[in-house]
Structures are given as structure tokens and as C-alpha cells.
Amino acid sequence: xxxxxxxxxxxTAVATAENGRDGRVATADxxxxxxxxxxxxxxxxxxxxxxxxxxxxxxxxxxxxxLGVVARQEKADVSGSTVTAKVGIGRNADGFGLIVEISxxxxxxxxxxxxxxxxxxxQVCPYSKATRGNISVTLA
Length: 140
Hints:
It comes from Streptomyces griseorubiginosus. One of its GO terms (biological process) is response to oxidative stress. By secondary structure, this protein is α+β, with helices and mostly antiparallel strands. It is built from three helices and six strands; from the N terminus they run E-E-E-H-E-E-H-H-E.
């Protein structure tokens, strides 16, 4: 996979975490500042958000953007569409790992076209590229 050179970077997000999964995370620009806690299913209070929710939010937004890019290329109508990312965390041989399911509702296309658009979006989405070969990602 081709690497991005520092001179090609268009934007860099910076976030700092305090106390890991049971603390706080904030972006350098102050636009995001949230309490993070493990979910109740993992023994936490569930009072704040958690890294899996933040990852799901970022992945779904990025994938929706990629869907728009491929729809424009294919001259397909994805207006009114939504993308949902379900991010699971569980034990694996190395300790813990993630699993992702990306689903989309695309009201103005037939199922075959919608599936083709999802497959193409999965090829261009930066989150999909970053996770490819590292975690299980399924499309629905």
C-alpha cells in the first residue's frame, strides 16, 4: 500500500487521553472533550463514551464520505443514505481485538447497485484501508 509522505498531509488531528479507557480524551483544538469509561459489559460505569464508540463514529462518517465519492464517479444517487458502523471488542489470542460491521441504507438505488457502491467505498475509505488485514470488517 502506498504510504503518504509528510509533505502530502492535508490535515492532522491531535487528541490526548488521560487515564486511558477510564478518564478523558480531548482534541488539541478543544472541539472534542469527552469523558471515557469502559462500557458496563466490560466492568466499567458506562457513564461516558468509550473508544469503540468514537471509532464507530469516525469510521461511519469517513465511509459515508467515501460512498459519496464513488457515487459521484458512478453517477449514482446516494442522497438520503446513511452509514452505520458497529464496532465490537472482544478477546482474541493477543488479548483484545476489534470487529466491525458497516451497513448502509441507500434509498434511491437497487440492492445490486447499493452493494457495488459499498464494495467500491470500502476500497477507497481511509479507515477501511487502515484496518484492511488487521481486523474483520463486513459490509451489509
